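Please fill in the sequence for the structure shown.

STRUCTURE ENCODING:
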């Protein structure tokens, strides 16, 4: 899958990663960003508080912070402002399940995106940064993919080996 018009709403740095410096300007433009000097932050914060209080996804049943709500409201705002497709890269299952290596956006979030942003705009959920980069026509080497897989496996192994408090 390939997306020509894609909004990426992060300020990401990848010091000394192969090919990153040249491509960063095209993939991660500095034109957006939620910062303290923009009044949009109040709108995002208020929408996130309402979303959290109503129990809307993305969130876990026992969540005590509005972090996922802020992220989602910011994604929606960026989609509306940019007029572009959106790719979310996360392994946070609050956004949707991962089944047989494929990520699926939560039905509620997909419908909400369609109603608030556009019925024709795409929103894609993936758990692989390499897949998202390919969608925006960035060069992704086999070595980069292997390193991503290695890091993911290392993190997963770290979680499975960590002691669990069974209080």
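FILLED IN BY: designer on duty
SEQUENCE:
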């Amino acid at each position: 899958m390939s997306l020509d018009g894609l909004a990426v709403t992060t300020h990401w740095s990848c010091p000394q990663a192969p090919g990153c410096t040249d491509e960063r300007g095209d993939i991660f433009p500095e034109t957006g960003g939620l910062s303290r000097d923009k009044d949009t932050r109040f709108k995002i914060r208020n929408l996130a508080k309402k979303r959290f209080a109503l129990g809307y996804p993305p969130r876990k049943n026992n969540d005590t912070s509005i972090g996922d709500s802020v992220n989602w409201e910011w994604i929606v705002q960026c989609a509306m402002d940019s007029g572009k497709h959106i790719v979310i890269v996360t392994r946070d299952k609050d956004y949707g399940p991962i089944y047989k290596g494929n990520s699926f956006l939560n039905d509620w979030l997909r419908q909400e995106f369609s109603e608030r942003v556009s019925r024709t705009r795409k929103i894609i959920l993936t758990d692989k940064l390499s897949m998202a980069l390919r969608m925006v026509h960035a060069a992704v080497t086999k070595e980069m993919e292997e390193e991503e897989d290695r890091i993911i496996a290392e993190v997963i192994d770290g979680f499975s080996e960590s002691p669990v408090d069974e209080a």
